[in-house]
Amino acid sequence: MTGARIPAVVVADIRKHYGDLKAVDGVSFTVAEGEFFGILGPNGAGKTTTLEIVEGLRKADSGAVTLLGENPWPRNTKLLPRIGVQLQASSFFEKLTAKEQLQTFGSLYGVTAAKAVDMLELVGLTDKADVQENKLSGGQRQRLSIACALVHDPDIVFLDEPTAALDPQARRNLWDVLRAIQARGKTIVYTTHYLDEAEILCDRVAIMDKGRILAMDAPATLVRGLDAPTHVVLQKGTLAPADARAIDGVEQAQEDEVSLTISTRKPAPVLSALAERGTLDGLQVRTATLEDVFLDLTGREYRA
Amino acid sequence: MTAFKSLSAAMIKGFLRDRMTLFFAFVFPLMFLVVFGLLFRDASDDKTKIAVVGDGPVVAALDKTGALELEKYDNAEVARQKVHDGDLPALVVAGGSGVELTFAASDQVKAQTVIGIVSGVVDRINLAESGVPPAFTLEAKPVEDASLKPIQYLTPGILSWAVSISGVFGAALTLVSWRKKQVLRRIRLAPVGPTAVLSSRVLVSVGTAVAQGVMFVAVALTPPFGLQLTGQWWLALPLLVLGTTAFFAVGMLVGAFCRTEEAASGAANLIVMPMAFLSGTFFPVENAPGWLQAVSNIFPLRHMNDGMLDVLVRGKGIEALVVPSAVLIGFTLVVGFIAARVFRWED
Ligand SMILES: Nc1ncnc2c1ncn2[C@@H]1O[C@H](COP(=O)(O)OP(=O)(O)O)[C@@H](O)[C@H]1O
Ligand SMILES: [Mg+2]
Fold it and tell me: Domain containing B88 — which CATH number?
């Protein structure tokens, strides 16, 4: 059924250069309706530029974008009610309360004041309705900003680093909001520089660096494709490194001040061997993550 | 709610909740009005008061000059004592064909003024009596402002100035802050035209200007200031509107070039303050040197001010609006056009 419908977003080989700097250097991707798509990468990778070209806020030097079958550039007023955008820097009217922000943004789309205020509940800000925007915490501001992007019930939602600069608790609260939005059947395109977060939230991710997409797939598929060893970590002294290396399937065993780290591509037999010996003190198992994928793709450690 | 109405409401709330802008739109100009209004209250009320005893054509003519305030006495001795005590600078005793002028020698300036006026009047009457046509004639015309009490030109001047402050600053700061905070880009992503956004902001400025007008005139009308409105003072309304649009256009131009609020208010000050001084906010332009008057014609504030003076305190009618309105509309169109050309949605 989904196969017959047109994709929500189609991006074909877009480029944007600022002088010698290739901010976006030939990016293509497709997002299906209802999909949660993440664009990941370190700061300066070109995520915002890509997103804003897709939203129709910037003009690409070349390439094509189609949103719900329409071209977003030049400003396409037919398309605008169907997309919701949260810009990287949150944009609010001065001195207005959370409720008034929503009502004002809603009115730009012909949404009634009562309906606009309903959005507060989705993002858990009902008790902050009468607080001025500049008196909200960082996480509350981000949630309000997302509510403003959703106020007119758009089909596609673009969120640019909604979780940046938030403390872990606020980030988790926001994840719940994002999942709730997806549950409403929205297509979400979002950017982040937290790879771990994208791994948890996204159906599919595109890893970007220096204006290019290096890899694109479901996070689990990307990690599996890496064929990276699993790290089994034990408390130091549980087992001598030499004994660990003797276990079948162990590729490497290294000890530092606190722990012994065993690398293996066959974690199941190694773990049962360890269990047989009763040497599982302080056991931690670390599988590869998107950070390892990034390291593999770029040859350098991921640093946001 | 329509986008226009809710944007207007949003901006009015933002305006009313911002103490800084409220201060500069209302309190700051009002302070000038109060200080100057009280400071200059008696400045032009300085008609010299003299004592007069007796009656006749000379006293009648003296009264008609309007230059002296005559205090009648029946008893010449009482009046002479007043001069002697320094209460009054001079005494005129008129009787028959003689006029006797007694003056206090202590205040030479006042004495000379009085002597000049009285002898002028006496000479004129003599000339008229003799029936000889005068060899030279003097034609003296009053400059209009000479008859305006300070509060009469301060109120229209400071009101126009206040409108220019709120117009220029309001437009420039809103534009810069909305661009900086990405509100402009966000609005651009909504299906509303720029007209709704722009006109709602202009409406707020016009509302501010009318509120300023009501407030300043109300204060100036109170007894300590004693403003007297003449004739068709309500013709000030169209001037308030047209002045606002002209200054709004200036603010849009300033806002287009400045990246930060600080830069924008600095630039706005650089424009508004000199313009205020040269446009007759604090003193009548007619007192300025000719070249300065010519220069001041380039400022919309000068024309708004002229129009305001005419309709508020000079008792002129709708014909006094023609030139100021034409200039303000032209100014709005030209500057507004330039501002639209250099307008930026984002930095
Ligand atoms: N308007 C612009 N002018 C010049 N350079 C820009 C502009 N916008 C972005 N860039 C540059 O393009 C690169 C990509 O920026 P951006 O898309 O914001 O990255 P990200 O969102 O991934 O952090 C950066 O090096 C940035 O400095
Ligand atoms: Mg970015």
Answer: 3.40.190.10
